[in-house]
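Structure tokens please, single chain.
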Amino acid sequence: MRFLTLVFSFFFTILSIAQNIEGKVSNQYGKPLNGVSVYLDGTSIGTSTNEEGYFKITATTKFNTSLIVRFMGYEDVLISNPYQAKFFDITMAVKENEIEAVTIVDDGFSRKSKLEIFRKQFLGTTKAGKQCKILNEDALVLEYDKKQNMFIAKSYEPIQIENAYLGYKIEFDIYDFYIKFGRKSISEHDVVQSMFLGTSKYYDTSTKEIQRKNRNKVYFGSQMHLFKTIITQNWDAKSFVLYQGSFPVIGKDYFEITQENDFYKVKVTGNYMKTNELTTNRFFAAYNLLYNKTNQSKIVFNTDEFFVDTFGNNTHRDQIIFGGDLGTQKIGNMLPLNFEPTDAE
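Here you go.
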């Protein structure tokens, strides 16, 4: 089971016995490649190959995420199951020189305004999001489709993000990014939906204790915290309260939890509905959330089941949509898959 960082989200791990990930990286002629970056997607866990092309990653936690192998001038290698072999013999192919011609189209919006909406929908407008800085914005290709009222962003190199609030540097490789608007507009007030998909690598750059405390602040009340609440069934008035419409309900009555191997399967209470005669039944369930008696959110499930690990990372993020407070939490509020809070609120 493999997926990419997605907002609506992003991550899924499985707690298990520690296991080494070892291998050798060579080019198509069998020559070892030195300095190749090898890391677990969405985490701060990684290494580089030595002069013999050898690498070894040791982690106390076994993650169900992809292994990314990246080296300048070569095509990325993605291994969906890093534990499928005791030793990986990886061959990297030289990247073809693909220079795409960029056609400048007058869509009525300046690059400045496009960058502004990109930052808001990618980094977020929270305190953490506002303190993030993209170090290579020139690498972004920003387009607007006037027929679909859709904004699209691409990048031909990983986006370098400096998160001063949390003390992380993030390399994010965009696979897909779009914003849908209700009309021909690039205003945040007309945003109907936004989504980004890609792989990421975290570097801990924290030098101040306040940054480490901020990580706890970001975690509590986050999506990770919510899904951990769901699997532990630890609903509390000081934490998350689930509402059906405007009425508070008992959270554990709406989620059936079963443990499968090292992770949890969540079955959602809801209904299947048919939008028209040509479509198949589609699952739909929507609830309101209140965190710490102040932060209001909405969660919509378009899937009746998904999986969550012990950290609170979940699958099926493209089918679980957030609004309100949780919907504003973008890259700026994201923590590595291997993050654990140091203490309670």
